[in-house]
Design goal:
CATH topology: Rossmann fold
CATH class: Alpha Beta
Oligomer: single chain
Order of helices and strands: EHEEEHEHHEHEHEH
Number of domains: 1
Largest sheet: 5 strands, parallel
Structural class: alpha/beta
Shape: globular
Helix content: 25-40%
């Protein structure tokens, strides 16, 4: 069982009523989130660890709250993850340094705001299924994630699935279904 995007008062209340949960801070709510402030995920009784290798790749550090929601959910579903942070197209050398990890992955989640180009780049490098998560981070013409969402949908890299803006939970559930 998992609770995501919970603020401090919600975590306190639910863990008092249902003790034994492991709380993970996922970051600060931004953009389309209804809850403002520091958010957490609480996991009770995670399932047994599976052997699949899942990478979560972020374009920038502002994408980390959504990536943490994804990794907390994947962990609750028994899927261990490795996070590669700040690997966006402006610093593509950081992504290319991890090309072997991308080649060995069973699934990759790409979390990116701004123009969302990282999903296409990763989709062209890895043979694994790619779940793209547009984020509401960015400025200028990012339009709270709409630009990234549309770019990810228009990717020419085959095999990319796109979830809604800031939906790290949905991306994790998609990975779990693919690897079932």
């Amino acid at each position: 069982m998992i609770l995501t995007r919970a603020d401090a008062s919600q975590v306190a209340r639910v863990t008092a009523d249902h003790p034994g949960g492991l709380t993970t801070r996922t970051g600060t709510a931004t953009g389309h989130d209804q809850v403002r402030g520091d958010l957490s995920a609480v996991v009770w009784r995670p399932v047994e660890q599976r052997t699949a290798r899942v990478l979560v790749v972020t374009a920038g550090t502002t994408d980390l709250p959504v990536a943490r929601e994804c990794t907390a959910t994947l962990g609750a579903l028994g899927l261990p993850t490795v996070t590669l942070a700040d690997c966006g197209v402006a610093g593509v050398h950081r992504l290319l340094a991890s090309a072997d990890e991308l080649a060995d992955a069973d699934a990759v989640v790409v979390v990116a705001g701004m123009e969302g180009a990282l999903a296409s780049l990763v989709g062209g490098i890895t043979p694994a299924p790619v779940i793209a998560v547009p984020t509401s981070t960015g400025y200028g013409a990012a339009f709270e994630g709409v630009t990234a969402l549309l770019a990810m949908h228009a990717s020419c890299a085959a095999g990319i699935a796109v979830v809604g803006i800031d939906n790290g939970f949905g991306a994790a559930c998609a990975v779990a279904r693919i690897l079932a």
